[in-house]
Amino acid sequence: MAEPSTSPETPRFSAVLTPHRSLSPRGFLVLMAAICIVSVGTGLLFFMLGAWPVIGFMGLDVALIYLAFRLNFRALRRYETVDLTDDALTVTRVAPSGRSQAWTFNPYWVRLSLQPRIGRSTELSLASHGQRLVLASFLTDSEREDFALALSSALSAARSPGAA
Q: pTM value?
C-alpha cells in the first residue's frame, strides 16, 4: 500500500474503512419476502378464525422490521478515509447523513496506539500535541490490528530519512 512518493502531495498510504455489511440487498429482499409470506399466512389464519384485528398487527410487524433494517442500512453508509502524504496524515470521517469531519496530524509527531480493553474491543487511536482521535471503531479486532500494522509501517517509512 505504501509506495515512495514523487511529490509531497502524492499519497504514501491511503485507506477507506467501511463497516461490514453481512446482508446484501438481494438477501434483504429475500428475507423481507419470507417475512411477508409468513405474516400474510398467519394473518389469514387468524382472519379465518374470526380474529380479524390480528391482520393489522401482522402488517405493523412487517413495517417495523422493514424500518429497522432501513435504519441499519443507513448507519452502514458511514466510512473513514486515512491518507498519508509526506506532510500530513489526514483522517476524514463521513457520517451516514453525509456530513464529514477531518483531522490532520503531522506524520513525524503522531503516535498510533492500539489499546486492548478487558471485556471490550480494542481501541485504535492517533495522538499528537494533545489531540487524540479514536478511529476504525466499527472494524473487528483482527481487522483493526491489520489496519494498525499497515498504517504503522507506512508511518515508519514516511519518517525514515531516505523516504523521499
A: 0.72
